[in-house]
Amino acid sequence: MAEFEPKIIAFCCNWCTYAAADIAGTSRIHYPANVRIVRVMCSGMVDPIYVLKAFEMGADGVLVAGCHEIDCHYLNGPVKCDAMFEKLRRVVNTLGLEDERLKREMISTSESPIFARVIEEMVEQLKKLGPSPLREGVKV
Amino acid sequence: MEEIKTGVYICHCGLNIAGTVDVEEVARYAGTLPNVVVARDYRYMCSDPGQALIKDDIKNLGLNRVVVASCSPRMHEPTFRRACQDAGLNPYLYEQANIREHCSWVHDDRQIATEKAKDLVRAAVRRVSYNEPLEIKERPLNPNVLIVGGGIAGIQAALDIANGEHRVYLVEKEAAIGGHMAQLDRTFPTLDCSECILTPKMTEVGQHPFITLLAYSEIEEVAGSVGNFKVRVKKKARYVDEEKCTGCGICEEKCPWKVDSEFEMGLGKRGVIYVPFAQAIPHVATIDKEHCVYFLKGKCRACEKFCDAKAIDFEQKDEIVELEVGSIILTTGYDIFDARRIPQYGYGRYDNVLTGLEFERMTCAGGPTGGKMLLKNGQQPKSVAIIHCVGSRDEKYHEYCSRVCCMYALKYAHLIKELTHAEVYQMYIDMRCFGEGFEEFYRRVCDEGVNFIRGKVAKVTDVALTEEEQGKLVVIVEDTLLGRVVRVPIDMVILCPALEARSDAEDVAKLFTINRRADGFFLEKHVKLDPVATATDGVFIAGCCEGPKDIPDTVAQASAAAAKALSVISRGRIVIEPTIAQVDEALCQACGRCEEICDFHAPKVISKDGLRVSSVDAALCKGCGACAVVCPTGAMSVRHSTREQINGMVEALLEV
Questions:
Q1: How confident is the model at residue A1 (pLDDT cuts 50, 70, 90)?
Q2: What is the CATH number of the domain that holds A78?
Q3: What is the per-residue pLDDT for A140?
């Protein structure tokens, strides 16, 4: 049987983390292909519904990443994201998903190596955890 | 509903994409997706023939959605949007899949990269099916400019804009413009007199037909957005009629009460009614109400008796002035670090420990000592120590370098030699002489026989250990080049305190909805590529409110901010981005959460036809989407980042 390959959805803010992922590309910094990036304008725009939708659809992990507080294009987006994230974390735990499946990071444009490392680490952790219990056909 | 017809274009980008991703296979796959009527691959989609493919298909096949899978949308989204627009398709019906930066450049397995590219294309095709045509709106703007702060930065920006024959309102908190530069004696490294180069500009401001000067005034309130700001300014009562006052100075002469002059850094006195300095603009008197005996005890009015112009008006009240402007430049300057916060340096305890600005006033020919360098006892110093980095480059206070101290410290050394022939010691951490003519000036001062001791000063004391130290101040410093602690007995100490963010910087930032860095200075939109813009469109920053800098850098930055304001004006209209929040009034419960979370004051709960609903001010909204997240009913959404669009992508990415 082939090794389990986790699926990760990464919601990345246009101004910082999406740009960091772009620069990872320009600099040819390789990382696992398990991640699919969804571009959002601000981490503070990420509705819990999007994250829950991803898990419902069988994502093994979700990353919400955007600017550091001081870099925010919209002044306080990361703070708003953090506030949302705290509540979201409780919902996700209630669903029986492990903490490692939901990650919140602040990665600025200049931190493309960090972006690659975060993805690598996440893939590694999720491989240990195995498929999401919410995946179709997986017995909870 | 109109049938959705999507065209998908897979770019090879030479071998940049095609080298790793099987582009033909991706195009074949794209052709099987719902709503896709044509799928092609091409060597360079961004080239003219590449764009022509899209344009022709829109015209010939009636495409109403377009997806290009190529580089990052941060790169070529504007290119392809324009191509769609040229062919008559609304540019917001376009979507881009990033299969280069996020795929071919970061993976090397051809099969895996091709599968990922297919996923990304599928997500873009799904998303674009939910895209809606959006209209870019424009509205007229007010060409007037408000400048806050009348130091050299504000003066320069005001003149640049006013010389282009646009109205400038220059608001200054103090009684006169000129700022810190008016207090300086000479300027490094050329040693030209600060007043001589500044006062012609100040006079020009005072007389300029396109500049309205509001001195002794403060900003109370700012509303609106780029192109249409409404600003309330409080013009504080001077108790002197500005129109009548001739600035003759007889009132100050006759005023029986004297207090420390702020302009002279407390080294000289001024009347309670006063003109701050000889070349002040506006050149009118102001009554210092706090110290005026008439206001305190109801008797005196000596100034009134002697004023031939009948300008004194004890009944004058603060006046509110309402301004309408299209852009704003903040040039609010800096504060000087209070050297008392480092008690071991003895400032405020020892008579002959001065700050740099006090020394500037002392050496200025028009200053309180007539340009003589004197100790408290009236004698000339025989030896002087200059202590660098007081509060700068110090983790306990400010980590940053204040950028001007090394150079003015060298200037002091030169002036001290010129005025007194005293022995001069520079106690420095590193000499930072990076500007035009700076290194040359450093060499020159070295050649003048100044002593340099590399090390951070531990202490200034008057406790003498030897006969030589009797009656002197002793600077204790580790000379890091010699590797030992030395005691240097001297007559006078000049401290170089840090330039720091103004104590009211936080209030100003809130008033104008801009951000500050951790060190308290105003944050630019982009540190390298947009250094005078801020998070709020139409609000620019220049000079030391953005961070410590010298006069040439301040002037350059002020002209940059003026150019930015002029570019807003010359465009003549404001483009309103359509990708902003919108309210579904049928769902809105008027709970006001959107209003609470918004940092830009864009949504407001209003009464509309007797119903309370939220309404978004299109000019203020930035489209960050925080309101949509907190909206409990789903009434609030952001155009072009709707739930359908984002959930659609998530579904498409995970359904295979």
A1: low
A2: 3.40.50
A3: 43
Asked if B646's CB is within 8 angstroms of A75's CB, the reply is no
Which B residues in the span 108-147 are in contact with A, Cβ-Cβ below 8 Å? 108-109, 112-113, 115-116, 119-120, 123
**Both ends of chain B: CA-CA distance in Å?**
28
Query: Edge to edge, what strands does the sheet with B457-461 contain?
Result: B457-461, B473-479, B484-490
CB B448 within 8 A of CB B417: yes
pTM score: 0.79
**Based on C-alpha coordinates, what's the Rg of chain A?**
15
Beta strand B383-390 pairing with B423-428: parallel
**C-beta atoms of A45 and B625 within 8 A:** yes
- How many residues are listed for chain A in this entry? 140
CA of A24 to nearest chain B CA: how many angstroms apart?
7
Reduced to 3 states (helix: H, G, I; strand: E, B; else coil), residue B339 is: helix
Residue A84 lies in a domain: yes
Q: Is residue A138 part of a domain?
A: no
* Two structure tokens written together for B117: 């590219």
Residue contact A74–B123, C-beta within 8 A = no
Count Cβ atoms within 10 A of the Cβ of residue B364 and give its class: 0-12 exposed, 13-18 middle, 19 or more buried.
buried
Asked if B476 and B461 touch (Cβ cutoff 8 Å), the reply is: yes
Plot region of B593 (φ>0 → left; ψ -120 to 50 → alpha; else → beta)? alpha
How far is the C-alpha of B245 from the C-alpha of B243, rounded, in Å? 6
The Cα of B644 is separated from the nearest Cα of chain A by a number of Å equal to: 10
Query: How many CA atoms does the CB half-sphere of B323 hold within 13 Å?
Result: 31
* Residues composing chain B: 656
Backbone angles phi, psi at A73, to 5 degrees: -65, -20
Residue owning tokens 């896709």: B36
Q: pLDDT grade, residue B89 (50/70/90)? A: very high
* Domain-located, residue A63: yes
* B579 contacts B638 by C-beta, under 8 angstroms: yes
The answer as to whether A137 is a domain residue is no
Residue A135: pLDDT above 90?
A: no
Alpha carbon dihedral B562, B564, B569, B575, in 10-degree steps, equals -160
> Please, which residues have CB within 8 angstroms of residue B347's CB and are 6 or more apart in sequence?
B339, B340, B353, B354, B355, B495
Q: Is B578 on the interface with A (CB under 8 A)?
A: no
For residue A137, pLDDT over 70 is answered with no
User: What does the angle CA B156 – CA B158 – CA B159 come to, to the nearest 5 degrees?
Assistant: 65
Structure tokens at B43: 């060597």
> What ipTM score was computed for the predicted complex, to two decimals?
0.96
Nearest-angstrom CA–CA distance, B606 and B614: 6
Would you state the structure tokens that stand for residue B314, as one six-digit string?
Answer: 């004890």
- State the CB neighbour count (10 A cutoff) for residue B333: 23
Task: For residue B108, give Cα distances in angstroms to A29, A32, B72, B73, B98.
Answer: 11, 10, 18, 22, 16
Angle at B26 between CA A29 and CA B30, to 5 degrees: 130
Total domains present in chain A: 1
Residue written as tokens 């246009």?
A14
Do the Cβ atoms of B98 and A22 come within 8 Å?
yes
DSSP state of A3: P
Q: By CA distance, what is A72's nearest residue in B?
A: B535
Question: Which candidate, B141, B123, B84, places its Cα nearest to that of B648?
Answer: B123
Nearest-angstrom CA–CA distance, B349 and B342:
11
Q: Alpha-carbon distance B479 to B348, whole Å?
A: 26
The mean pLDDT of chain B is 96
Which domain covers residue A97, as residue numbers?
8-130
Angstrom distance (rounded) from CA B263 to CA B368: 10
Long-range contact list for B434-443, CB < 8 A, 24+ apart? B435/B189, B435/B407, B435/B550, B435/B552, B436/B189, B436/B552, B437/B189, B437/B190, B438/B188, B438/B189, B438/B407, B440/B189, B441/B188, B441/B189, B441/B407, B441/B410, B441/B411, B442/B410
